[in-house]
Amino acid sequence: MDTKPLVLALAPAVILFALGAGTAHGKPEKKAQAKSASGAAAKPKPAVKASAAPTLADAKRFLAQTETKFDRLNADQARADWVGANFITDDTEAIAAYFGELQLDAAGQAALAARRYNHPGLARSLSNSDARKLKLLQLTLMLSDPKERAAYAVARAALSGAYGKAKYCPTDGRPCMPLGELEKILATSRDPARLLDAWSGWHAQSPAYRDRYADFVQLSNKGAREMGYADTGALWRSGYDMPPEEFAFEMERLWLQVKPLYEALHEYTRYKLRAAYSPKVVPLTGPIPAHLFGNMWSQTWDNIYPLLQPVSGARGFDLTKVLEKRKTTPKQMTEYAERFYTSLGMPKLPASFWERSLLAKPRDREVVCHASAWTIDGQDDVRIKMCINPTAEDFAVIHHELGHVYYFLAYRDQPVLFRNGANDGFHEAIGDTVALSITPAYLKRIGLMDQDQEQDPKTQMGDLLRRALSKVAVLPWAYMVDRWRWDVYAGATQPADYDRSWWQLREQYMGIGRPLPPQAGGFDAGAKYHVPADVPYARYFLANLLQFQFHRALCREAGYEGPLHACSIHGNEKAGKKLRAMLELGTSKPWPEALKAISGEDRIDGGALLEYFAPLKAWLDEQNRLLAAQQKG
Ligand code: X8Z
Ligand code: ZN
């Protein structure tokens, strides 16, 4: 992840703020004030009027100086953030806040200065590339009051630290449990009481930083407004080479395109959960309780595959079991992923990656365990930080993280302002695209699945269902997280309504409900990393569609003609070359051009995902018909 923008994944806050994602037309939203965030209005600030029109030479000098400055500041901040996330202490938090403030100041000043070049007289003479750099520079917050800037940076570092440190300490004498342990309970237990205890224990932690988050939202909005955006949500929606209000419509359009597939999966899951638990725990209509999906946020459901697998012919292959049994180490997990990328013709990871990354949860200190990928210097110093366990889930996540790392390495020769994904959804999609090629045939090839594992059509439906439990189940979640935040940033949702609005969206989009009555002062959204860490989430929704577009395009490039879900590009350098060419562009071109280069399409679209899952959709419809009839009978 990233933003700070990437923070998570990518780079330092600067990137997030200073670069954001490219916008060819990204201007502050101009509509009249609206109530809800998705249509939120902006009070655009006029471009700063310079007394004399700046010259082309001025613009070029300014960009050169700014790029030199950012190169250094990015590295400073990345190091401070790295240390802050790897050793959570009051001191490292203060250091991260200090550099965050410097960066915010520099980004704000550069944005203001860049505005000077929004001059009609200059528009004709600027190259596309320089014009794009000037636009990217204006995709940032700007807090001119040093006190507010400091407060913002302190709140940001504190929120990240608070999430990283949070633990559930039961009052009945059991030892405290960090998130990783609670997640394991959610993934493996089938005892509703135990699941509920783990779920509610974790969700009881975030109210402690709710007020801090609410203050942070105010400061962030102030910074967005100083730059002329309606609020921070509008700033986020401005990073997609289209007007921000159009982006909100695009998201809704894409969701509606894939919604029938989600609904079929949700209905099937309900029947199976009713059978596995009881009709008392799982109602026949209305939202399904959130603690039953095998995941703390019910965002992916593959951990409950054993409860949902097709009745006959299920192979029951369990990659987690194999990895556990072989005692696969975090380093070996990472090497599996690295070998996939090198099979595509990509380079081996630099030696410093192995020396500096954090691959396992340390026993002796607090770290932010949420997986992330980092570029420290914009060049070879790339790392990941992840508490890797030998599970199928982490096997996919490690491929995801290396996708970020290979993106960093591919665009390292771009100017610093273009060292970013074509848009943030692209950055999130690369590793997932590669992970779509982890097919049974591939697992056999690398010796993780027995050669004699049967492959009849019924077991294939099981594989496809398992994949849908992560890739389809996540869609409404990946959409609603920022639908919630857009409203929070727009002021349509006030702190007193945080939970009400969160669960209204959870129910509306996901069909999932709170397993316990809401608590006064609750902050369930804050139990998800990206909210306290302030990492935008729409990127994952886009990534979930883009990865299927990339997969289809790369499979075609490889000359593959069978069903999409059985394609693996492993070992195909021709496909690798095509992928790499897109990665090398960074954010130097509007993203539709990057998409066109790899797939021939210039719109993000759910068609490839629907094609991939078409056999499953037919199967689910049939199952649901039978299960509904059984229910009646
Ligand atoms: O945060 C992440 C990655 C780091 S960019 C591990 N993901 C989202 C999440 O965990 O909620 C990947 C999928 C969605
Ligand atoms: Zn990521």
From TrEMBL:
Keywords: Disulfide bond, Glycoprotein, Metal-binding, Signal, Zinc. The active site is at E401, H530. One of its GO terms (cellular component) is membrane. Pfam families: Peptidase_M2. Chloride binds at Y240, R539. InterPro entries: Peptidase_M2. Residues 27-46 are annotated as: Disordered. Residues 1-26 form the signal peptide. It comes from the Bacteria. Zn(2+) 2 binds at H400, H404, E428. SUPFAM superfamilies: Metalloproteases ('zincins'), catalytic domain. Residues 34-46 have a biased composition (Low complexity). Disulfide bonds join C169-C176, C369-C387, C555-C567. One of its GO terms (biological process) is proteolysis. One of its GO terms (molecular function) is metallopeptidase activity. Zn(2+) 1 binds at H400, H404, E428. This is Angiotensin-converting enzyme.
